[in-house]
Amino acid sequence: MTGIIQSTIENRKLSLIEPADVPVLPFDVYAAGGEKLAKYYTDLGAEEENVPLYRATVGSGGATVFDIATGIDALDTTTESICGVIIYAHEMNVYFDEALTGEPPVCTSSDGTTGRDRLTGEECSCENCLRNQMKEGRKECRNKVRLYMLTAGTPVPLCLDVPPASLRAWNRYRRSLRHFGFLEPHEVLTECTLESLMNPQKKKYCRLKFRTLGKLEPEAVEKINLIRHCFKPDVIELPEEAYTAAEPEGGYAHA
User: Fold this and answer.
1) Minimal CA–CA distance to 163: which of 64, 76, 244?
2) How far is CA 113 from CA 97, 135, 144, 252, 254, in A?
3) What is the pLDDT of residues 141-167, one digit of tens each?
4) In which element (H, E) is residue 84 found?
5) What is the pLDDT of residues 92-131, one digit of tens each?
6) DSSP 3-state assignment of 227?
7) Is 180 left (phi over 0), alpha (psi -120 to 50) or beta?
8) Structure pTM?
9) Contact, 91 vs 143, CB < 8 A?
10) Do the bridges between strand 82-95 and strand 188-198 make them parallel or antiparallel, or are there none, so unpaired?
């Protein structure tokens, strides 16, 4: 049985409320050449060079558009929304030295557990690192979640980072899927958009918004699950340009 539990003030008891109907949508999963597709995702998880991976970054200065980089100039573009299926997500940490403007991050962690210092080559535990401790409501290290989305008709995943100020929105979105029959992100079509906000220092920044457009057809879910079986991107070491410099944020919100 699906639904959400709501406390009713009138009679002080818990009642089960059926959610609104969620549409079932078709989704064009790239399925040509099954063996080639399986090898592609296996190579991607094995950190093979020259394996394509699209990247979406948030426009600077609070601009509510995503910049899409594909590695092919003619295909690079901007868009106000991204619609696709989130096939994988993992935690990650990034530390920038504010004194090194325009430089790549000093330390990165592709799994949110072990960080590697670019300057010294040393590894450290993210949990015990002083840069990852909360001080006056902020951290030097930026805790993120990296999403990998499939858009219709292409086998190449789109990589999108959820910044610290958007983690609450991401966590709430995942929880909200339970209201639609305990669904997972890879079982629904998700729309990502941006809202422009201003932090206490009067600097504009963007926060991600997530919306469910509908459930995927069973056939599409089956194809997605085959892709996810091969896809383990938390071991991928992306090039330095994949990590964008720190943008103004509204704070760290994890709930």
Assistant:
1) 244
2) 20, 20, 12, 18, 17
3) 999 999 999 999 887 889 899 988 899
4) strand 82-95
5) 899 988 777 777 889 988 888 999 898 888 999 999 999 9
6) helix
7) alpha
8) 0.80
9) yes
10) antiparallel
